Structure formats: C-alpha cells, structure tokens
Amino acid sequence: TRWITHFCAPVFVFLAGTSAWLYGHQRALATAPGSAPDAIDKAGLSRFLLSRGLWLILLELLIVNPSWSHGFNWSFVQVIWALGWSMILLAGLLWLPARALLLVALALVAGHNLLDRWTPADFGAAAPWWGLLHAQYWIPVQPQGYGVFVAYPLLPWPAVMALGYLLGRAYTDPAIDARALLWKLGAGCIAAFLLLRLLLPYGDPQPLAGQPEHWLALLNTTKYPPSLQFLLMTLGPALCLLAWWRRYDGQLNQMAMAPGWLAQRLLVFGAVPLFFYLLHTPLISLSALAWHHWTTGAAFNPMNTPPPQWPEGYQPSLPRIYIAWTLLLLLLYP
Fold first, then answer.
1. Most Cβ neighbours (<10 Å): which of 68, 176, 188, 303?
2. Which of 258, 276, 307 is the last residue of a domain?
3. How many domains does the chain have?
C-alpha cells in the first residue's frame, strides 16, 4: 500500500512539466498558427508558471496545512509546496536551450545523491537552508514551539519537472513516435533501477545490502528527498502506463480505442487534479476525526498525536483504510 502511494508525487511533478510544455505550445499556436512542433511561447509560459507557482505555495500553507493539522500551531510543507517552487524555477530554466536544460535536469536527478553525505547539522546557522534544499528538517519559528517541518526538500523536484517539460515535445511533434519513446524510456528507467538496486551501491542512502532479506526491501527506497533509485522505480512504470494510455488518443490514430468504463471514471478525476487534491485532504481529515469520535469518544488527529497518546484500544486498520478510500472516492466522483 505504501509503495503504491509513492507514485503520486513524482508523477504529479513530472506531468506538471509536460502540461507546462503543452500550455506553452498552445499559446504559441494561438499567436502564430502553424508554428513549429517545438514552438513555445516562453514569455507567456514563464509568467504563467511564476503566478501558478506562487498560488500553489499559498494553497499549501493556507488550505492544505489546516486540512491536516486543524490549526496553525505547526506547519509542514510537502508536495504542493514542491510543485509551486518547481514551477517558479522552471519559469527561469525554460529559457535555456533544450539540450542544456536536459543536461542540467539529468545531472540533478542522477547526481543529487552525492549530497547525502552532508546533513543540516554540518551547516551551522545555515542548517535551515540545507533543510529546504536537501534534507527533511524542522525549522523553529517561535520559542513557544511553532515551526515549519520541511517534508519535501526542493531537490531534485525542479529537475523532475524539467524532464517532464522536455518530454512534452513528444506530444506535439508528429515526427516523434511518442508511444514507442515512452515505452523505451519507461523500460530503461526500470532496467536502470534494477541495475542500481541489485548491483551498484549508488542512488539511495538505504542500499539493498543493508536491509532485511525480504523482497519488499527491493522497493524500500528513499522518498524524502526522492533518491535516484526512487525516481527510477516510480517514473519507469508511470512512463510505461503513459505509453499504454496512448491507445485512447484519438489524435494519434484513427484506430484509437474508446475509453472503457473504468478509464472514463479515471478521466473524471484526471481532468480536475488540483481541485480533487484540495477537496480530498479536508474531507479525509474531517472524516477521520468524526470516525475517531464515534468509535473512541475522542476526536484525535493521528497526524499530530503520537501513538502513546492514542485512545486506549485504538488500532490502525489497513482494510478500514481501503474501505474509507473507496467510499470517499465515490463521494467525490459527482
């Protein structure tokens, strides 16, 4: 179950980059019909990414945080925050030539684990800055205990978004067989993950050799910040799934399949991802409070309540989580 949820953040960030390319290309076509397949209205896209990134950061702090903690006594910055800053940085990075941007993005994704040897404690007074960049870190703001927990350090998320942005051309250039490219990239990522995980001691601070002898250890890679192995493990299958979904693209060929019953339902959620995310967080949290109050008499929040302080007799339940997940999806679908 935990492994399944690992796909959310990297795919969110990667596809946000692809969407940015498509938006910039549509703007270029609007101002100059018949533009080249790689035409991008960089000025318009840059302004859009700057404003959208700032809005996402505000939404993280003002809506997502209270949805989880039910108050401002503490804050934590996570995936929406990382998306916002990645957009702001992409607004500047997109002015680089495509090859230069590709090299920078690949270098950050493949090389950022070289920074694992340093921790915030190594930087003294500058520790919060290192925490923002490359390590989960608690940043105290007031002596009374208020602070910000950096759940999603920024590196290498902007590079992941930049790679998704560059992949966008495969969707706008008829000369590129996007489906074949996606299959190759996806299979290549999976192969690289297996090679690094099984044979080479690089790309994750938790090497396979130091973990219990269990097949799940193969998948136990580091998410905070996302290691190279983590990104290969998640983006590889995601790229293969994108290739598979191309069968439903009517613009790709006249033999495209019509979406089936399940695909049509998934497309409903996929059409409004931000709205769904902003709505599902308070709904999940408030539903959990109501459930806890009904079953234990205490409306406690497991997000900020340590296990020793949970009501007597309360035990988390994975089947109950799946039931709640299904019911909330059905509730949000209309």
1. 68
2. 258
3. 2
